[in-house]
Amino acid sequence: MSQERKCKWFQGCSTSLSSYNNSDLCGPHQKEQNELETAAREKAFWNYRIPTSRRKVSRSKKPIEVLIKNTKERLTAEGILTTVCQAYQVTLDELISRNRKATYSSPRQVAMYLLRTDLQMSFPEIGRMLKRDHSNIMHGFRRIEQLLKSDATLTHRVELIRSQYKSPA
User: What is the span of the domain harbouring residue 111?
Assistant: First the structure.
């Protein structure tokens, strides 16, 4: 004797499942479950890709490929860090490292300045990204801000870095 299978939807649906249905959910609940899983995957993807300060609820029905393409074209923190690393010929690990040598601290402070001015990231956000306390980020930002007023070489270098990550690829 075969036992009658019931839908296992969390709200207690009592719909009987036919023998040809391999799912544990009835048709309407299976569709709803698929929509919930898709929404969760998309939310997880966008929460990972977009910093919290820039997240906005999107009501668009654009295909995911269009959304991904648009995200890649936007200015990102990773893009700024990569460009700074290339300009100063250091690796990302060296940029984020605890090393206090000028070889690494100067590009790190330039990155702090650019993240703050161009992406309007908060000091704590930049600190989490660079594994530093927000007060260190504030110091680095202010230091570069002061140096830009008096050091033409640094001003030129920062503008060159900006032009590299803002220009179309």
Answer: 77-166
